[in-house]
TrEMBL record:
InterPro entries: Cat_transpt (IPR003445). Pfam families: TrkH. The chain crosses the membrane at residues 64-80, 92-116, 152-176, 188-208, 220-243, 263-282, 332-359, 380-405, 440-462. This is Potassium transporter TrkG. The keyword Lipid metabolism does not apply.
Length: 479
């Protein structure tokens, strides 16, 4: 009997380990969602503790879960005052959450495994590869992509180094400005690191009393934050590609900069310029926003807000003061978001780029999509269309639900919902005034936006299914 009980005790952990390994190999995307959701539950429990609040009281479950989801999903929306509600322990928990969420759960696991074992096995490479490209969960994925399995080790190193170096550099640039504002050295460094992490991970949390309102005309601080948001939004694969490109000779080795990096950088810059001009033009005569500013300040503020729509969320203008036309433009930019495998959310800039390339190819009568001397396979277009449809469906369902709960107008609700889905963090203050049920709906929207529609679909599908037959072809009328 003792021997049997001992065998049961030893077989249970082995069975659990075998189940985990089987889950990783069969569906890394589903495993990522499970780990991601488990972390949210853990962070909810930690933020609910009395030690996490400055008042030493238990934070309501809805607010604790909303903050946990917003931190792990690097969104930046909040239902409480981030500067006064949380204690030092609570701020540390939130900081840890945005760091984990920013670099990706599976990427972090692979970095820790590489640190401990000094080697990177195939399973760890597949885990990290799923974070950089969820399409790998499908069948027949080509390795002619942004980051191959052989480059995963270098990518993980780039993730860790860029996270440490960029956030440290941003902290050193922000802290002196806070010292001039009257903060003590420990508070300047602490708040500087918080802002640096919030900018680079595109979270948007601000630990300062009054938020960024006292600094809305501070060109230096806002420029530093904008640089951090831009670097975080282009994605770790692009940072890795830029490093290899510059290390390999720059323009003399232009082939090292792949199609993904070129598409991401080009589309991001185009969208930033479009948002910059649109926001400046639409708010030029608005006395509540830019109407009282001179030309230089208006151009700077509108450019800064355009960068923040990448998913940064560190806004300096109250969206409630903006024109409805401006809110719609920002809705569009937030829905697109930043680069793939970045700290930003949204449907991603490469998704919208592929759709426009497909429309251009169809208009010119081309059989294939082409960009920068490369052909893009049709399976990428199918994924892009799926991402847009699923993203629009999530936003529509959440908007209808919250409109029914609150009775708020469409432009306000849509702005908040898209900000949640795009993990942006720009807010009309609707989140703080939602009923608990509405907070859960918005938290689920943040979760879906950060997990990613491709990863979510891959997790549901789990495995590729093939049919042994094909049905007769018949073409419906389209358009």
């Amino acid at each position: 009997m003792r021997a049997q009980r001992a065998m049961r005790r030893t077989s249970a952990p082995l069975a659990q380990k075998s189940w985990i390994q089987s889950m990783i190999q069969s569906s890394p995307a589903r495993f990522a969602i499970l780990v991601f959701s488990a972390l949210i539950l853990l962070w909810t429990a930690l933020l609910s503790l009395p030690i996490s609040s400055a008042a030493g009281t238990i934070t309501p479950l809805a607010d604790a879960m909303f903050t946990a989801v917003s931190a792990i999903c690097v969104t930046g929306l909040s239902t409480v005052d981030m500067a006064s509600h949380w204690s030092i322990f609570g701020d540390l928990v939130i900081l840890a959450g945005i760091q984990i969420g920013g670099i990706g759960v599976l990427t972090l696991a692979s970095i820790l495994g590489l640190t401990v074992t000094r080697r990177l096995g195939l399973r760890q490479r597949l885990l990290a590869a799923t974070d950089t490209n969820p399409m790998r969960t499908g069948r027949g994925v080509s390795e002619s992509q942004a980051v191959g399995l052989g480059d995963i080790g270098g990518l993980l190193g780039a993730v860790a180094i860029s996270l440490l170096v960029i956030e440290a550099a941003l902290t050193l640039m922000i802290a002196p400005r806070l010292l001039l504002e009257g903060y003590s050295l420990p508070h300047a460094l602490g708040n500087g690191f918080y802002l640096a992490a919030s900018a680079f991970t595109n979270t948007g949390f601000v630990p300062l009393p009054g938020g960024l309102a006292p600094y809305e005309t501070d060109g230096y601080l806002l420029s530093v934050l904008a640089i951090g948001v831009f670097l975080g939004s282009i994605g770790f694969p692009v940072i890795f590609a830029l490093y290899r490109y510059l290390a390999g000779g720059g323009w003399r080795a232009h082939k090292r900069l792949g199609l993904h990096a070129k598409l991401t950088l080009t589309t991001t810059i185009v969208l930033v310029i479009f948002g910059w001009l649109a926001i400046a033009g639409l708010e030029w005569n608005n006395p509540s926003t830019f109407g009282s500013q001179n030309l230089g300040q208006t151009l700077f503020s509108s450019g800064y807000m355009s960068v923040m729509t990448r998913s940064g969320g560190l806004g300096i203008v109250d969206p409630l003061d903006m024109n409805g036309s401006t809110l719609l433009v920002i809705d569009m930019l937030m829905f697109v978001g930043g680069g793939s495998a970045s700290t930003a959310g949204g449907i991603k800039v490469t998704t919208i780029a592929v759709l426009f390339l497909a429309a251009y190819a169809e208009a010119r009568g081309y059989q294939d999509m082409q960009a920068f001397g490369r052909r893009i396979p049709n399976e990428v277009l199918r994924v892009a269309v799926s991402v847009v449809i699923w993203g629009a469906t999530i936003v529509a369902i959440a908007s209808i639900t919250i409109m029914h709960m609150t009775g708020q107008p469409l432009d306000i609700v849509l702005f908040e919902v898209i900000s949640a889905f795009g993990t942006c963090g720009l807010s009309t203050d609707l989140s703080a005034n939602l009923p608990d049920a509405g907070k859960y709906v918005l938290a689920a929207t943040m979760w879906a936006g950060r997990v990613g529609t491709v990863t979510l679909a891959a997790a549901v599908a789990a495995t590729s299914r093939s049919r042994m037959f094909r049905l007769p072809e018949e073409r419906p009328i389209v358009g």
